[in-house]
């Protein structure tokens, strides 16, 4: 029988089938962080349970950490207490913690891949919806709630209904100035913020195959923004080359043996999907969002639609535009912007930082613009400094911070003031996501860098040659 | 988990689509390390001004609308996986959320906390909103055993889908963990039989 990549991995992790058709799925890797884990540990204590397989869980502090002076105690008391609680829980239950000050600390979806903990064929979960990021390696990776964090800690398993399978194929060549972030924003704009609900997505096609691992992670990361539980890409030589030599990847002969197994991870020709979508890379341009969900995206040179997408209500469309301070039919090009955020689990990896540095080198941010760059991890920050990127950012007037989730969700002090626009490389433009009243415009790192330099929304294709 | 019995209640209308979990409970209120108290900040930025004063035009601040049932537009609960969204709705006093469409992770989180997501057709959702608009004291009945949602005044009813296992858990107050813990032998047998993955020892 022909199988999709998703089915191959899912079926290999099936422990049992419960009454009512729920699958008991074995979880290989579990990442936890300070925000969605404390109540799960409390649950274990209440039932007097240990962590079943502590070696398969990795913890880090990312959502709630400051991006300045991480060597000092956290100023904000509730944040400090939550981060301290993570430390206490990990110590009590024997879970490895890459906390503040550890050379491996960083955003959970950045460190898993860069350390080689994330590998093809695995099942990976974390109490964070952007766990879909790890799917770029050909893994089944998805976000879970805190009750499920407790279940995985206690049993290394989850009880799940198998999702339907969708394939999104993108063929062709991207134009200069168009990045993988634009691909995924384009797809979500086409399918809508609920277009993937109930599905697990496989991304395929020549435009996807041509992408680096870091660019693939950006695509899989935002699968959840169209409602899909996760997204994955079949591993190939690009994947194996990325993993070779990483801290927790297998070594020498063991690595070659693993590669032999990983090469079997693809959808069989003839395997069927419940739904298929096809797109051409040539139709994709630098994208920006104009509304308050990631499905409300347009090519940067297009006007805002004059009416909601079919099936969406005029009330919600109007409410969204009113929040953003935009009018139907209006163009975004030329709109003044005073905040730029480059970071988050979507776009804070070394390649993102290199692209931004290459663009801003010799340029200066526009007067009055606050441009913040938050690296995804200590490893990314270290590498950026080794390559002199920090000096490039400083010379261009960009503020290069310490690693964390930062202004993507505004849990720490990195917030955008009410009413201000922020062009952000993060993943969500929800109302108040970057701070109460903040207006988020999602874009690629290249577009964000160009906006910081111009002080207004621009088409980055006019700035590259 | 508390057993879920049949509920008769008035309902609170929230005719907005794509209500994301950042609206249900903004990230800055996720710093608590317990499950209680999140109801105070449910829909915080729609409910309160930045100075803490109530926004009188928001439905939760309108005493006309009360009840254990929240009725909302499609794709309710999209966005973040934060279970705090389900805790906040439950802590505030809701036992049921009605919509024409729920985001996956929210739906699972709700069910794991005894909060029932009731998915109805867009036309029936419209009827429910109309019934509340005509009479804010309209009563509704949620019968989990028979999987029906009824507009009491008109007697109109629609059945809603729920996974049989989830239904059994809600009716009996069981949770997934009880079940998974009972499978320990099978889980250990799985670990033994599956092909050794060379990376297993590296962490």
Description of the molecule:
The complex is a heterodimer of chains A (about 475) and B (about 200). With about 475 residues, chain A is α/β, with parallel strands linked by helices. Chain A has 3 domains: about 5-160, Aconitase, domain 3, CATH 3.30.499; about 165-285, Aconitase, Domain 2; about 285-465, 2-Layer Sandwich (Aconitase, domain 3), CATH 3.30.499.10. Chain A has 15 helices and 19 strands. Chain A has helices at about 5-10, 40-45, 75-95, 110-115, 145-155, 180-190, 205-210, 215-220, 235-245, 250-260, 315-325, 350-360, 380-385, 390-395, 445-455, and strands at about 15, 25, 30, 55-60, 95-100, 125, 140-145, 155-160, 165-170, 200-205, 230, 275-280, 285-290, 295-300, 340, 370-375, 400, 420-425, 440. In chain A, the strands form 5 sheets. A 5-stranded parallel sheet of chain A has the order 5-4-3-6-7. In chain A, a hairpin with a 5-residue loop joins strand 1 and strand 2 (about 25). In chain A, helix 12 crosses helix 14 (about 390-395). The N and C termini of chain A lie far apart (about 50 Å). In chain B, about 30% of the residues lie in helices and about 15% in strands. Chain B is α/β, with parallel strands linked by helices. The radius of gyration of chain B is 19 Å and the shape is globular. Residues about 200-203 of chain B have low confidence and may be disordered. Chain B has helices spanning about 20-25, 45, 85-90, 105-110, 120-135, 165-170, 175-180, 185-195; strands at about 5-10, 10-15, 70, 95-100, 115-120, 140-145, 150, 155-160. Chain B is built from 8 helices and 8 strands, in the order E-E-H-H-E-H-E-H-E-H-E-E-E-H-H-H. A 4-stranded antiparallel sheet of chain B has the order 1-6-7-8, with helices on one face. Chain B has a 4-stranded parallel sheet with strand order 2-3-4-5. The chains are: A alpha/beta (about 475), B alpha/beta (about 200). At the A-B interface, helix 2, helix 3, helix 5, strand 8 and helix 10 of A face helix 4, helix 6, helix 7 and helix 8 of B.
